[in-house]
Each structure stands twice: as C-alpha cells, then as structure tokens.
Amino acid sequence: MSAEQVDAGTATAPAPWWSRVSSIVRAHPFTAALIAVLLVLALATGPLHGPHRPLRLWLGTGLAQLADGHWWSPFTAVLFTDNLAELIVALIGAAVLVGWAERLMGSWRTAVAFVVTPVLGVAAGALLQALGSGAEQMWSRGVRELVVLDVFSGIAGTIMAASAFAGVLWRRRIRVITLLVAAVYLLYSGLPADLYRMLAVLAGLGLGVLLRPGKGLQGWRRSSHHEVRVLLASAVGITALGPVIGLLSPSRYGLLSPVGLLFTDAMPDRDSVIERCQAFAVTRECVRALTLTRMDGPGPVLLSLLPLLVLLVAAAGLLRGRRFAVWLAAIVNGLLGLLAALYYGILPLAGQRLAASGRYWEVSLSFALAVAVPLSIAVALVVLRRHFPVLPSGRAVRRYLLTVGGTGVGLALLYVLVGWLQRDTGFTRPVDLSDLLGDVFERFVPVAFLRHEPVQYLPTTPLAAAVYHNIGTVFWLVAVLAAIPPVLGRSPWQRGAADTARVRRLLRRGGGDALAFMATWPGNSHWFDPAGEGAVAYRVVGRVAITTGGPFGAPPPHDRVIERFARFCDDNGWTPVFYSVEDDLLPVFERLGWSTMTVAEETVIRPQQWATTGKKWQDVRSSINRAQRAGIRAEWTAYASLPLAVAVQITDISEQWAADKELPEMGFTLGGLDELRDPDVRLMLAIDGDGRVEAVTSWLPTWRDGVVVGWTLDFMRRRPGSINGVMEFLIAEAATRMKAEGAEFLSLSAAPLAHTAGAPADDAGTMDRLLGHLSSSLEPVYGFRSLFAFKQKFQPELHPLLMAYPDPLALPEIGAALARAYLPGLSVRQAARFVRPQQPAASRA
Fold first, then answer.
1. Could you report the per-residue pLDDT of 17-53, keeping only the tens digit for each?
2. Which partner from 185, 681, 771, 827 sits 20 to 30 angstroms from 56, CA to CA?
3. Helix pair angle (107-134, 29-45), 10° resolution
4. 829 part of a folded domain
5. Would strands 707-718 and 693-704 be described as parallel, antiparallel, or unpaired?
6. What is d(CA 545, CA 817) in angstroms, rounded to the nearest whole number?
7. Measured between alpha carbons, how far is residue 710 from residues 634, 697, 800 in Å?
8. What UniProt keywords are attached to this protein's entry (predicted)?
C-alpha cells in the first residue's frame, strides 16, 4: 500500500464514537446538562414510579402547593417524571427537540425558554384554577389537590420559542402540530399538567417574539399544496388519537373524555345485574348498570376504536394527495359529529338531555365541543380538497361503497334474523320485529355515544351476545380494510385515466415534445388514439379541454391524432385547445381552419455545442467561478436517493419560496415538490461544504426508442440568501453533464405567457391582449418575463410554442380556463387583485 493510500485511508476513517459524542455535547451544552440532570434525579428518586410522598408534595407543583408557599415548585416540577415510560420519552424529547432548539437559537436562549415557559404556564394555570374554584367551577374544584410533575411543559415551551428562529416550513409545522397536540391533551385528558403545558406553549410563542423581535411573529404565510396536505394529515391524525388519550389517561377530567368510561374498573358483572334487575324493582342504579353492561367485552371496545383507525388510514392517504382520503376522513368526522349531536342532545331529537344538564355549563360545553371538533375537521377537508389532486377511479369508489354498504346491510339482516329466531329465549325479555329494527342502528354506533341511552334489552345466550356485541365491530373492520387499497395502494392519477404504465410506455417510445413528460403529472386525463399508438394528455376546465403539450407515443405526423382528439372533445361537448405545442404543427391547424397564437417560447440548448467562451458568456463564467470559490458542488441525483436531511432542506426551500408569493402555488405546466419525486425525474443540487442545499433544479426526460435524448428544466428553487449566480452554476453543470452523456438537447422550458413573438393571426389579438395583461399582472409575483430574460443568458435557440383553438368566439372562456388551470386555488379576492391594472413601479413606491 502506497503512502498516498495510507493517508487517504486515515483521512476517511470514522472518528471514534466517544469523539463524536464529545463534539455533540460541546455543541449542545444545555441539552447535555438537562439530560444528565433528568437521569440523575430519576435514579435518585425512583425511575419506575417517580418521587414518593412527601418528597413528591415538596417537588411537585399545583394550586395547592403554591397556596402552601412552595414558590420553588414550578422550577422543580419540570425536572421529574411519574414513571419509566415518561422518563424514556422525556430523555428522547430533550435530546431531539431541546437539542434542535439549542442548535437553532443558542444555549442561553434555550435555557431561558426551558425555565421561563413552564413557570409562566404554571402561574397562569394556577390563577385560572383559583378563579374557577372561587366561582365553584366543577373542574377547578375536582383537580385542586392534584400534584403536577411534568418535564414536557418545558420541552414544549422551548421548541415553541425556537420556532421563531426556524424557516417558514418548520416554523409553521412546529406551531401547528405543537398547538394541536397540547390542545388534544387538554381536551381529552384535562389534568392540570395539560393546562399548564398548553399555557407554556403559548408562553413559548410569545417568548420567541421577544427573543427575535420583528421576525418571531409573522402572519400565516402561504402554504404549498404539499404543505397543506402535511398539516391536514397531521390534524386528522392527532385528533383521531385524542380519544385514545382519553382512554389511557389515569384520570379523565377533559371535556372530551367520555369514551374513557369504557376502561373504567367499575364495570358491573352482566349476569348479576340481569338477575338483580329481574328479581327486584327496576331502580335508577339498575338502569345505569344495565347501560354499562353493553359496554363490556372486546367487541364494544373495538367498536369505539375502529372509526379512529379509519381516520388514521385516511391521514396516511392525505399525505399522498388522495382525494378518496379527503372524502373518507370528512365523512367519518362528519358522522362522529352527527352522532355526538344526536346522542348528546344537541339535535332536537334528543334536546331534553342538554336541557337537563344546562345548569352545568361545563357539561354543555363538553357536548358542544364533541360536535364542533370533528365537524370542523370535516369542513376544512372539504374546503381544501383542491390540494389533493390524486382522484380515485370510479371503479375503486364503487367497489368501496358496495363492500361497506353490502357489509352493513348484511350484518343488519343477520342481527334481525338471529334476534327473531331467539326472540323468546335469547334476551332479557321477549322481543319482536319492531324491537330489533329499532335497535339495529345502535349496534353500529361506538358505545361511548350510548352511555346515556336506556337499555331496552340485553342478550342472554352466546349466539345472541356474539351478534349483539360484534356486528358493529365487523362493519368498521371491513371499512378499515376496504379503505386501504384506494387510500394507500397504487391507483391511477385521475378518474377516467387508463393504466399509468401505458402512458409511460408511450413516452419511452417517443414521438412527443420536450413537455411530453408532464403527461404523467396528477390532474391530467389521458386520451388514447383508438386507431394507433398516439395519446394526448389534457385537463377539462369548465367546458374547455386544454392539452398539456402535443400528442406523444407515435412518430409524426400527428394530423390524424389531432383530428380524432378534436372529435372526441366535440362528442363530449368540450372545446379542444392544444396548448404549448411546437410550431411544427402549425400547418395541421391551418388545414383544420383553427386559429393559433404564440403563448411562450421554449429555450433550447444543444449540449454537444456547449461552451462558455466569449464575451456573451461572461455572466455565466462568473457565476461558475463564484460558486466554486464558495465551495459549492453540483450533484446529479434522484429524489429517492436523497438522504432525509437533504430532502427536508429541499422541502424547506420550496416552502419559503411559496410563502413569499401573494398568490397560490401555480400548476398545470409548472411542477412542484410532488412532481420532482417521480423516479424518472433527475435533480441537480447545489450543495455547500457543510452539506447545506443552496439551490435545486429538476429535469424531465424525453425518450426515443427507450433512450433518453434530452432533458427539460422544470423545478427551480434557491435558498434565500444563497450566493448570486447559483442557478447559472447549476444549469451550466447540467449542460456539461448532458454533453458528456450525448444528449441531443437541453430545454430550459418556457416561461408561461412570456415571449418575443407577436400573435400569428389577426383574430388572436383580443386573446393576446388578455394573456398579455395576465402576464403583466402576474409578473410582480411570479416573474415570468424576468425568468425568460434569465434563460437568454445561455444563448438558447428560441422555439415558439402555440395555442390552437377552433372557435375565436370561445376566447373569453378559454382565457378563464387557462387562468383556472394555472391557478386552481385562486380566490375571488385574489383574482380581483391581479386583474386590476398594475401601477407603474414609481407610483407604487
């Protein structure tokens, strides 16, 4: 082995583990000290059970402790846990969350946040308890003597304060998810610790503003489609787990903890209750005991938990952009809200129960929240459904409805049949058909809703009991299992779309333009030529069918493909519009008598002629040199190959870009995060010496006979504050790589609504002016013309892209359809804002 090899091996050898731990400790001194203190104190006072009395009374906090003069208790209560499970979670939370906060805002700020936020939370919470006790408020009196040991108040308050120092993406995620978790614990558990923790979170939000004035508190900034899906999925998942928190909480003081009754230890024995109620007069206690007996056993418990499992499956589908998951979660949440309104007496059908409890406003508030929380989630899902573009096939929807509906009807008939056969001996009293039909609906309702409902009869034989207690469980289990394929499995992108594999097979064959790969994007439908192998990707907006580029999958000429697609649109009552097609197709449209106009110009580079010599390339050469001096390297990769840390950085960069826009994220021919995850798409990243991503571009392939012959630029994002010229550097590196690979072309794509050419036809003048105004209005936000000017730095060939349409009278409708295609989430207020004539820059200043 040579000396150079020895040196190289020594340089690449990993550092010893103790050296890595030591460096981490030096970088996070407060986190390391906190973990050591938690561990030492737990070992000294009992890691399995926490401090015993009287030490617990001296160290813990609460209203009673503060009233007794234990002023130090808010400081000591955050350093202890109640059991081993809490200790393990606390140590992990401190290492990950507090460590992250310390890296983000420094050691002294982290120490201040960990001490101050729980103290403020305890002080504010104890004050609210004292006010409630003085007003004879039920909750405050019930929890007055409880002692709190809660390290999580400090952790939650610290990360909330640190969110002020995070970027747009993680600031929003931390705040939304932390507030949701704290609120769910408060509603479903309701212990004083949960109240103190919620107030500590709010204190952390305020402290972050003070520690970073001017930037700590910013209004809700625009989210990308991807981020909306993440936040909604988090909300659905967290609220679905809320009842589980209520079930597992040792004490149930929360306003939304009625299902905790299922796990009470005071469940009466069914046989003794039935004998007692048959032998003696039916008393109030007897009726209550009978009610509880129908909640006993695994069937009723599963019946309460399985609807929540449906919501967790739906939450996983929401992350994948599945519209089916939106409707599934909305329907289940709406159903839970409706059941709560019905059985808790909010609907007129059972209004007496709410009236009876009206003197206890907390009970009324509990009932109202039980309805409002799931209904609010359902409404939010329906309103924001446009962010979930992956539509299920009609076949998948029909299969799910038939499976679940058929199962429900079959189980209901089974219950009625078994009940009728055992009508004289199978229940606590003889039943008839009206009894069975009146009771069958409640067999499918989670039993927590039925705890106030009187019991008409109970089963006494094994067969009757099996059917009585389990048909609802079987129904919801089928609902869960049947939802997995359309929510989590592979499905076509769009309702009515043929097999996605066929689209990709045709794309690999070739015959399409540089934008042909966009046919695979969600939101597109596909028409396959019945007389050949050609295909067209399109989307219907109103009564206009707008194509995504030209035909693909068959070699030119495409005359017949275009004619047959136009006939297909006419048969469906749509106006066909070929959008962003190459000008090679102009003779076809002229022969058809269609009107055409230039909507963009594609900028094309020939990699085999790539060189950066000469005066015209001075800016590009300077950008390359600047990036190299800064230690930035280019990396050609695919999204699936990215380490998690790099993928998170790309998401963060994209989210900051979307948050800075005054209008929603655009779509149609402009890809986002979802599109760059495609396994056929390649990424070119700019990464500095510390592993930080400075900029990212994505490249769409174009094939011919299964071989990639060119790449098209799509996704472009740079980190705010990155060096000037980083995008020029990435494009130059991509061109160099493609030259080495023998690519025929590199397309910088086309900036929508930006070009140098005029309208090719007189009757397009109105449309050209409309799109010109649209381009001018969007320029301050999206900078299409600036982007077009940027691309001309690379001395590209300019290829006009056309829009062709059969009827000039349809131009107003086509213009509106294009606006909706690019900005499907545009609100009326936002539309009015950008439709107004733009003021000159001087007057705006």
1. 677 777 778 888 999 999 999 999 988 888 887 888 8
2. 185
3. 50
4. no
5. antiparallel
6. 9
7. 19, 15, 18
8. Cell membrane, Membrane, Transmembrane, Transmembrane helix
